[in-house]
Amino acid sequence: MKEISQNYLRYLCSKVTGMKERLFGKTLGELQELVVELGLPKFTAKQIADWLYKKQISSIEEMTNLSKKARELLNERFEYGLTPYTKVSASIDGTRKYLFPTIQNKFIETAMIPERDRKTVCVSSQVGCKMGCLFCFTAKQGFQGQLSAGEIINQIKSIDEVEEVSNIVYMGMGEPFDNLEEVLKSLEILTSEWGFAMSPRRITVSTIGIIPGMLTFLEKSEAHLAVSLHTPFHEERQKIMPVQVAYPVEEVVEEIKSWDFGRQRRVSFEYILFEDLNDSQKHVDELARLLSGLKCRINLIRFHPVPGTPLKSPGEETIQRFKDALNKKGILTTVRASRGQDIYAACGLLSTKELVKN
Fold first, then answer.
1. How many domains does the chain have?
2. Predicted confidence (pLDDT) per residue in 17-29, tens digit
3. Which entry of 30, 133, 347, 354 is annotated as an active-site residue?
């Protein structure tokens, strides 16, 4: 019995739901499989990819180097598949936060952060999140669904600054390695020559430390890795990050130490400072012990207050003192500039606000 392709299964599902399947978000391999099923020449897949990822169009009809027959066959089963944003908030510092609709009247957030000669886009990988970190407002929504590769890349393709994007970070809503397959597909589309042809050195994927997903990512992608650490002590981390039970940070770091990152690839650790919780000299000393021998950097982040949590941000003097102490230990440490505080900067706040309205 001939194996049923994933493309055809998705097609059957679209027939049941009455919705057309999206072309946008398919890899070249998936497009090649698709055109064979439709009885079209194999080279048509490369032509479709070129229209999807390199040109600005809004419909299959605009793919003018495809035959009329090819466009008709595609239109029967598919739609182009871009989703426009529903709202954008602009900060006085130039940061822009976009709101995109998704499943069942839910929303995801995308931030565009301008800085000197670069424009960084922070994308979401899930609708909500199931990881339950105490300091994250997205966690208050709970997990509501996975984003497809197309929905992830749509956050780049559909913003006003699409032609100016220089860097991408997977640090928005959700845990990327809890949606590993679609995240890897999105990275393939972003970095392949037939896709956006973007250097993986301009992309960073952040995780709270899901080891199996992290190892697969390191093997299959060349993008940078960022790990949300926030405290080096087991019991403290467990209180604010439940993932510590399944994947202790010491095991996460040991896995990273065993990996050859090469000369260009970077690993960094995200560290949100909380007043009287993780900002003492003993934390500096333990971080130095934990990260000993690992070429990395620590990004210190000021905590943006989240309703319903007792956590507070320490004063500026404490933040600078903590940074200097880590640098003296030989760990390159920087303080990330706070951006977009006037437009609900904390991840999840804007989408939650929209959910409450609905």
1. 2
2. 457 999 999 999 9
3. 347
